[in-house]
Amino acid sequence: MENQVQQFPRMNEKAPAFEAPTTHGTKNLDDYHGQWLVLFSHPADFTPVCTTEFMAFAKRHEDFRAINTELLGLSIDSHYSHVAWVRNIKEKFDVDVKFPIIADLSMDVARAYGMIQPGASDTSAVRATFVIDPEGILRAMIYYPMTNGRSIDEILRLIKALQTSDANKVATPEAWQLGDKVIVPPPASVEEAEARANSGEYECTDWYFCKKAL
């Protein structure tokens, strides 16, 4: 039997299409056209680390919506398990999970997005997070181990940074937050470098490293 090489999604290409049952009815990738989407997987319902993540996502749901971003969870659990878990989180922690969760018993979506990592588990999705832009292009991927929860603040920050880069054709430095100065692309010629250094518009440390306020 020939070994099958698993194909993983790649950044700046079309995100894998899907249609799947969720706690809010059937959803597909096209439902999110025109919005940013955070598609994220968790190993299993009714587990402590996953519960903390889902509560954190739920508490920041409106913050994501404020920047035109929707949330979509996934695990290789049944539809009924998801419903019971959402109800349990409301009952025990008083947190409403209002975004859909894909029931991926077939593992079709998990495999398409490379959420199954044999070194971690053959039957559970690892903590993978995918940021998909309004045109359905995969813009970022973040993988976490089974044992450690992700930072929802960082995912929000990343989407704001991507949106700022798209709107202004700039890059953002480490730990950038809204309101911080951004990095402008390096000049492409000696003349452009000289003009930039003398313009007073930029804060330049060297010819290739210049920031500006938006």
Q: What's the short version?
A:
The chain is α+β, with helices and mostly antiparallel strands and 214 residues long. Helix content is 30%, strand content 20%. The protein folds into two domains: 19-150, Glutaredoxin (3-Layer(aba) Sandwich), CATH 3.40.30; 169-214, 2-Layer Sandwich (Antioxidant, Horf6, Chain A, domain 2).
Keywords:
214 residues, alpha+beta, Glutaredoxin, Antioxidant, Horf6, Chain A, domain 2, three-stranded antiparallel β-sheet, 6 helices, elongated
Task: Describe this protein's structure.
The protein is α+β, with helices and mostly antiparallel strands and 214 residues long. It folds into two domains: 19-150, Glutaredoxin; 169-214, Antioxidant, Horf6, Chain A, domain2 (Antioxidant, Horf6, Chain A, domain 2, 2-Layer Sandwich), CATH 3.30.1020.10. Helices cover 30% and strands 20% of the residues. Helix 3 links the parallel strand 4 and strand 5 (101-103). The radius of gyration is 20 Å and the shape is elongated. The mean pLDDT is 91.
